[in-house]
Amino acid sequence: MAAQQEKRPIVIGVTGGSASGKTSVSRAIFDQFAGHSILMMQEDSYYKKSDLPFEERKKINYDHPLSFDTDLLLEQLNDLIHYQTIEKPVYDYTNHNRSDEVVKVEPKEVIILEGILILDDPRLRDLMDIKVYVDTDDDIRLIRRIKRDMNERGRSLDNIIHQYLATVRPMYHQFIEPTKRYADIIVPEGGENQVAIDLLVTKIRDILKQRERK
Fold first, then answer.
1. Which residues bind ATP (predicted)?
2. Which of 27, 35, 108, 187 has the fewest CB atoms within 10 Å, i.e. the most exposed one?
3. Structural domain span for residue 19
């Protein structure tokens, strides 16, 4: 856990494989603090901007650590920790590229950072107070990914399966699953695990109370 020396936001990292349920876990925590000072950030927003043609961008390995602008994510997370407003990038899943738009994000007392590789970089891990790994079987994640990418991102079944076999699955076992050892809490089955979510919420409330006393 990150060392606490002065007042600063609580940073919760939520990771796991693609379609593991990490977004559901993040939203479940977020909803428990509705009305409080809390924000959610997605690592997906920090995919590197590409000048390649569309057909070439479709071939990029988006599950490799080098696909992310981790330096920018680290910089902006540090800004939020120091109560500075940021202009967060926006990623366009349809065009496989970061758009020219940005979103103004105000600092909050609780920051939830969600993404597949947020525990891969020690600089990010060191900023987190709680590190969560959402652990879901490969077949469940594949089914969820197919439904999501067809319904929300307009992708064909052939494209989804090809990408899964070519990059998603091998990158999960090479880069994502090994980061499980850095987690403080492992949550099986994602947002369906209400007990784990309740424990996380209780821990966050305890940290907030401790900091209010200082």
1. 16-23
2. 35
3. 10-205
